[in-house]
Amino acid sequence: MKYPELIVTARDIEEVKQLVNSGADAIRIGNQQYGLRVAGDFNLNEIEEATAYTHQHNRKIYVVTNAIFHNDSIDKLPNYLDCLLQIKIDGIICGDPSIFSILNDLNKSLAIHWNPETLATNHDTLAFWQSKGINRALLSNELGMDAVLEIKTKLEIPIEVQIHGMTCIFQSKRKLVTNYYNYINGTELMDMSQHSDKRLHLKQLKEPESNYPIFEDCNGTHVMSNEDLCMVDHIEPLINSGIDALRINGMMNSRKYNQRIVEIYRKAIDLCCEYPINYLSQIESMKREILEIQPVERILGTGFYFKEQIY
Amino acid sequence: MSNKTALKLKKPELLAPAGNLEKLKFAIHYGADAVYIGGKQFGLRSKAGNFSFEDMEEGVKFAKKYGAKVYVAANIIAHNENLEGAQSYFKKLYEIGISAVIIADPALITACRQAAPDLEIHISTQASITNWRTVQFWKNEGIPRVVLAREVSIKEVRQIKEKVDIELETFIHGAMCISYSGRCVLSNHMTSRDANRGGCAQSCRWKYDLYEDGVDESVNISEQNDEAYTMSSKDLSMVEHLPDLIDLGVDSLKIEGRMKSIHYVATVVNVYRKIIDSYVDNPKEFKMNQQWIDEIWKAAQRSLTTAFSYQEPTESDQLFGIPDRLPKYDFAGLVLAYDDRTKLATIQQRNSFKVGDEIEFFGPDFYHFKQTIQLIWDENDKPIEIAKHAMMMIKVKVDHPVNYYDMMRKGK
């Protein structure tokens, strides 16, 4: 059985090292100015250091450059990409078609992992982007298992899906937390992007137990899912169908938690590929282990993998 | 623009929403150069009336008489199972004489190109186009027009216009997503209704409690301040700023609202038609008229904002606390005929009105007058006090001549 790549986000160099040692095949990092919802902010020196470390250990490093670029920021992107190319990272994660002309202007090639988030939901769309030069497709989190597997059968480029952690469910360019505080405080104006240490969540009033993390940064306001995806007991169909990469989003979790989660998924993938019977017999214990370390306010779920949507 | 007298300004297209055939006719009669509609498939307003192919045919025929265009929004973000039938759908639209389709998902571009290579494609605002390079990408793909994201400022529109030779369409009026359009799955997650396929439950406008999470406990800030957290935006209105958009050469000015009423569409189109014509015909002498602004407020459903046009929106661009009081008007009746000899208008009732009511007639080209209802006759020419039945035909004595398609509104 082909091993899928196990990818995980990291917040800093220390975590890159920890997660490589815990069994991640690839690490996803980025800089807030260019990438959305990074687990931690990496400057170019740190990206270089992370790249050196992962490469020494024969692992991959991917950098998110998936911001929703406006004119001022798109004009800074070529130089940034040029720097990333010199560092020899293994791929960028992006979702703006500007990328094709920028790489063309630079006359360089760089693996493009296509992730327009909510907008990659069918095989023909991804085939279109494949014809423009993408090297991998990261599927929308709002797809069912059947849709994921169908896309895999119809597309030649590698497919990546998220299997664990929170997902983004809303992004606005506006400062929706600052605006609220300014409204309730009246005179004392504040800027939430200066309070990045502040952890906030929304409760949907009709859903009393709900907990939707919300935060602001230079890309605007982000609302995250109420549940953490947890597919440890459902990776078999993904692996059997040849899905190429499985991703863990570790943002907002403790280092210890992320380390343990990577170890558990490493084990799950290895078992599933080598000894499927053992995987099946150990599913329950692996799931239990995750439940034991799961923060009490974060429920686990399977997202849209097994849920019907109406429209 | 200092040389605006020397330079002949290009008149932008005024593009209006039409949720059904009747709305299409009103939008065009009141001055829209083009309307956008939804078909039974691939559109984002699953709850709007939407058009059968027969309705589209009639709509296109009606539009042609006015030299107007009809666009069809096919702007869902499709899942695998939604792609079926796309090719025959676009082929049919082309045969009907639709001028362009508005698409967000490249899969549908592919389908449209295969089935109807000559059908023009515009890229929808759902694709979140926010910079000139992305616009250039679509230009290179042979796309003649893009609808910019609502987050793009006037300054950025100008930069894009300078760098890329392509038609730009921007929103000038109506309700807005507070997220980047297409990037919000709140509705999917909270109600299993897929917003990107037309099922949006408007979860952003709901009320929430905001908590600050401490090490040991979370504090409910909303409860503490007795003010729910919400993310609802005021509605966009560029009514006082159209010259800025016309000067920089925006090609199409778009009004949102396929779900809105006939009264809304006619009123808003009427105002923008008047402003565009007044400005382009004589930019030097152009002055904003308070009446135009007042008229916009008669149709407004929320407070208004210029959103991202001039600066980043703040709390004053959102709807917090008790909603502002807005003027409220009902569409009371539609003029079907007028007899110049008797000064009687034949009217189809749309909302109850009675003798003594202060009403306002209005029609295309910003025709307006107010009067009091003196006498009402029913179909049998019998005087009545109140016109209370929906769609009943009555006659009313009017102070000034009126025409078919003129409307009568009444304050609530």
TrEMBL record, chain A:
Organism, scientific name: Aquibacillus halophilus
UniProt-listed Pfam families: Peptidase_U32
Superkingdom classification of source: Bacteria
Protein known as: U32 family peptidase
TrEMBL record, chain B:
Protein name: Collagenase-like protease
Domain Peptidase family U32 C-terminal as annotated: residue spans: 328-409
Single Gene Ontology MF annotation: peptidase activity
Family as reported in the entry's similarity comment: Belongs to the peptidase U32 family.
UniProt xrefs under InterPro entries: Peptidase_U32 (IPR001539), Peptidase_U32_C (IPR032525), RNA/ubiquinone_mod_enzymes (IPR051454)
Record key words, sorted: Hydrolase, Protease
Gene3D superfamilies membership: Translation factors (2.40.30.10)
BP terms from Gene Ontology: proteolysis
